[in-house]
Amino acid sequence: MEDLFTDAYLDLFRRLLIALALGFLIGLERGWSKRELEPGRRIAGIRTFGLIGLLGALTMVLARESNLWVIALSFGGLGVLVAAVTHVEAQRTGEYGITTEVAVFIAFVLGALVMTPHVKLAAAAAVITAVILGTKPVLHAWIRRLAPEEIHAVFKLLLISVVLLPVLPDRTFDPWDALNPYEIWWMVVLISAISFLGYFAIKIAGPGRGVLLTGLLGGLVSSTAVTLNLSRLSHLQSEAPRLLAAGIVIASTTMFLRVVLVAAVLRPPLAGVLFLPLLAMTLLGYVSAWWLMRRETARTGPRIQLRNPFELNTALGFGLFLAFILWLTQVLRREIGEMGIYLTAALSGLTDVDAITLSLARLAQDPALLDTAALGILLAALVNTAVKGAIAAVLGGRRLGILVGGIFALQAVLGVVVFLVRG
Length: 423
Fold this sequence. Notes:
The protein has about 425 residues and is mostly helical.
C-alpha cells in the first residue's frame, strides 16, 4: 500500500486523470453536437471519449513495461472497432462523415501523449481539437462565401510559391545588387497573405456590414481601393458625407498598422523607429473617425469592390513593381545619396506603400541607414495619404474633401513632429 503514495505513482495517477479529462473535453463537444440523437445511437459520447483517452494512457504505460508493439496493436484494434461501428451506422443512416471517428483516434493519441513529457502539448492539442470540432457551422459558412475562382486563385499562387520559392536563387544578379529573385517573391507572398486576410474577412463579414468594419478590413487589402469606392459613393449619396469620410479615414489609417506589421516581420528595429509616429497617426485617425461617426445611425455600410490579392496576375504585377522600386532605390541612392531614397519613396507613395516599405526594410539591414529608411517609409505613407485625400476631394465632392483632407493634414503634421522629437 505504501507504494501507492510514492511520487512516481502519484504522478502516474495525475497523468491518467489528465488523459481522462482531455477525452472528456473532446467527448463533451461531440456529445453536444449530436445531442439530438438518443443515447446509444451515437458512435461515441462523452463517456466513450473519456475512456478512449484513458485507454491511450494505459496503453502507453503497458508499452513501457513490455513492448512498444502494444501501442500499435491497441491502436489497430481501436481502428477495427471504429470501422465496424462506422460501417453499421452508415448503412443505417446513409451518412458517411468520419469527423467523430478521427476525433476518436486523436483522443487515443492524446491520452498516450500525456504519459510522455509533452503533457502541455497534449492539453493544447485537445483544446484546439475541441474548438475545430465545434466550429463546423462557422467554417462551412465562411467557405460558402468564397467564389470558386477565389479559391482557385489561392491554390494557384500557393502552388507556385511552394514549388518556385525553394528553387529560386537567393542572390542578386544585377550590377546594382538590387534584384534577388527569392527575396522578391517571398515579399510578394507576404504582402499577398496580409492582403488576403483582410479580403477574406470582408467576404466572411459581408461587404455591407458597416463602414467601420469595411474600412478597417479594406485597409488591410487596399486603402486606395476603399477610398475610390467610398468617394464615388459620396458623389451619388451626398447625404452621408461624414459616414463615408469616416470609412476613408479608417481605411487609410489601417494602412499605417499594415506598414508597421510588414516592417516588424522583415526588420524589427525598423518597426521600432516607425512605431511611435505611426501609432500617433493611427490613434488620431481612429479618434477622428469616431468623431465623424458619433451622430450617424447607419448600421450598414457601402459595398466595396476589391480584387482578390491572391490572383496570379495581381501578384505578378506587384512583384514587377517591387523589383522596379528595389532597383530604383539602389540606383538613385548610388547617384544622389539619401535624397535618392526620399525621391524614390515619394514617387512610390503616389501608387503604393508596400513596395517601398519592403525595399527600405531591406536597405535597413545597414544600421547606419535605419533612420533614413524609416523616414523614407514615413514620407511614402504621407504622400500616399495625400493622394487619397485628393481622390476624396475630386471624386467625392468639396465637403468630403474638406473632412478627409483636414484629418489627413493633422495626421501628417503629427507624424512628422513625433518622428522628429521621438526618443
